[in-house]
Structure formats: C-alpha cells, structure tokens
C-alpha cells in the first residue's frame, strides 16, 4: 500500500507543488492522475520512488518510510517500482534486448556493468519480458528502428524485467498517435490485471483516463479535488479539476 499523510512538496524557488496530500493506494489498483499542466501530477507520482523528496508529511510504501531510505536501501526499494516516461528513455543506438538488460545494471558488480556482461538467467528474464509485451521478435533490432508504440513496449519490458510491484507512468502516451496510445494503454491494463501490479499514470488524455483506470485522482494547484471511481466522474467534477480550461486536456 502507498500512503501519503499530510504530504507537501515545496521547491527551492518557493513554489508549492503539493499541498497537504492525504491518499491511500492499495496493491493492484489502476489509478489515473489528471489535472492541468503544472497542477502537481508529475510531482505526486515522482515522490513515490523518491525522484522528488517531499518537504513535509509522511510517505510510506508497504509500511516503509520513503524519506528514511538512503544508499543501498533506497536502491533496493526502487527495484520494486518501475518508471515509464513519455520519452521512453531508451538507448536508441543499441538493440532492444540490451535496453531491457539495463534493468539489471543497478544490481551488478561494477565490472559487469562496465563491460556489459550479463548472466544467462538475466538474458532469459529479458527475453521473457519482451515476450510478455509481444515484441520478442524485435529483441535484436536497434531501438531507433522501432515505432513509438514499440519503443514504449520496450520500456515496459525493461520495467517488467525488474519484477516490480508498482509501475509509475509519467505521460506515457502523450507522444503517441490515438490508435497507438490505446494499444499501449491496453498493455498497462493487461499488466495490471494479469500480474496484480499497481499502475499509477499521470495522463493528459481525460478520455483514456476514464476508460482504462478504475480510480481517478484529480489535482488542481497541488490539492486533490477529486478521488474516486472513474465511472463517477461527471462534467461538474471535470470542471472543478480543470477550472473551465478543458482545452488543455486532450480528450
């Protein structure tokens, strides 16, 4: 379980991105976080794996106080949490399988990481992750020869190779065309349902959020203004979240 207790995040320039957040997310949920640009969506999900440190309050994951983790304990903790980005974050000039194998680098002795030496079981795990994403046939293709949707699937395979309990996705379909975006969202839904992995997506596309997520969290100016089932999101709720600026929200 992920739990925010009176969590706030203030940046050095004084901007308060999160204001007194109280929130619980159970294992296996599929949650979409929606709101205007700058509302605090990315900050919210990035505090979960300590990409951003909170300023006040308590944030726990499976009973572990995230802010108390340091060094090796923080690295081990982050292994449980996969992170997917809009830009895919792949090494485009190398093969797909080598990209997936980078999931194991944080646990390798320095010399294996430096030389790119991987054990047989690590290679098998990487191939199995690609198979789960339906792109095993692309294992030895250079990443820059793939479509955007295929590159995002490689990023998902790399995350699955970590055997995560949680996947955080920061605008994962923002750069994809509508058809491909739905295909990638189908992948997230399948991973969530078949593997019981918690999926938390910061997403700009309201329609996709309501269609795929079972729970929606609406953020406005660093404050949660809606937290409930996607099926209960009304036009009034959306007006509250977007303050009448729905032109900034893709539908």
Written account of the structure:
The protein has 251 residues and is an alpha/beta fold. It contains nine helices and ten strands. It is globular.
SSE layout:
Elements: E1 2-10, E2 16-25, E3 30-34, H1 41-48, E4 56-61, E5 64-65, H2 71-78, E6 81-85, H3 96-101, H4 110-115, H5 120-132, H6 148-161, E7 166-170, H7 178-195, E8 198-202, H8 206-212, E9 215-220, E10 223-229, H9 235-242
Parallel strand pairs: 3-8, 3-9, 6-7, 7-8
Antiparallel strand pairs: 1-2, 1-4, 4-5, 9-10
Helix pairs in contact: 5-6, 6-7
Gist?
The chain is 35% helix and 24% strand. With 251 residues, it is of the alpha/beta class.
Provide the CATH topology of the domain at 1-80 and 166-172 and 197-251: Rossmann fold
Order of adjacent strands in the largest pleated sheet = 6-7-8-3-9-10
What percentage of residues falls in helices of 4 or more residues? 25-40%
Q: Between the first and last Cα atoms, what is the distance in angstroms?
A: 30 Å
Oligomer: single chain
H and E order: EEEHEEHEHHHHEHEHEEH
Largest sheet: 6 strands, mixed
Strand content: 15-25%
Rg on CA atoms, Å: 18 Å
SS class = alpha/beta
Question: What is the CATH H-level superfamily of the domain at 1-80 and 166-172 and 197-251?
Answer: P-loop containing nucleotide triphosphate hydrolases
Q: What is the CATH architecture descriptor of the domain at 1-80 and 166-172 and 197-251?
A: 3-Layer(aba) Sandwich
Shape: globular
- Extract low-pLDDT stretches: none
Mean pLDDT: 90
CATH class of the domain at 1-80 and 166-172 and 197-251: Alpha Beta
Give me the count of strands.
10
Tell me the number of helical segments per DSSP (H or I, 4 or more residues long): 9
């Amino acid at each position: 379980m992920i739990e925010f207790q009176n969590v706030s995040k203030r940046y050095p320039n004084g901007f308060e991105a999160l204001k007194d957040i109280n929130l619980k997310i159970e294992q296996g949920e599929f949650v979409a976080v929606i709101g205007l640009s700058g509302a605090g969506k990315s900050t919210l999900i990035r505090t979960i794996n300590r990409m951003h440190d909170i300023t006040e309050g308590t944030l726990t994951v499976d009973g572990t106080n995230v802010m108390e983790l340091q060094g090796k304990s923080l690295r081990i903790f982050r292994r449980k949490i996969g992170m997917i980005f809009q830009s895919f974050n792949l090494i485009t000039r190398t093969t797909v399988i080598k990209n997936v194998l980078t999931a194991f680098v944080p646990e390798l002795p320095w010399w294996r990481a430096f030389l790119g030496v991987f054990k047989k079981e690590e290679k098998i795990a990487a191939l199995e992750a690609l198979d789960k994403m339906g792109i095993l046939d692309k294992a030895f293709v250079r990443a820059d020869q793939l479509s955007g949707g295929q590159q995002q699937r490689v990023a998902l395979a790399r995350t699955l190779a970590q055997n995560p309990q949680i996947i955080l996705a920061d605008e994962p379909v923002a750069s994809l065309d509508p058809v491909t975006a739905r295909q990638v969202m189908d992948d997230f839904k399948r991973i969530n349902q078949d593997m019981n992995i918690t999926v938390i997506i910061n997403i700009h596309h309201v329609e996709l959020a309501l269609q795929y997520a079972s729970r929606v969290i609406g953020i406005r100016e660093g404050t949660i203004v809606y937290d409930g089932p996607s099926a209960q999101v009304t036009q009034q709720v959306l007006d509250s979240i977007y303050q009448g600026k729905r032109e900034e929200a893709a539908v």
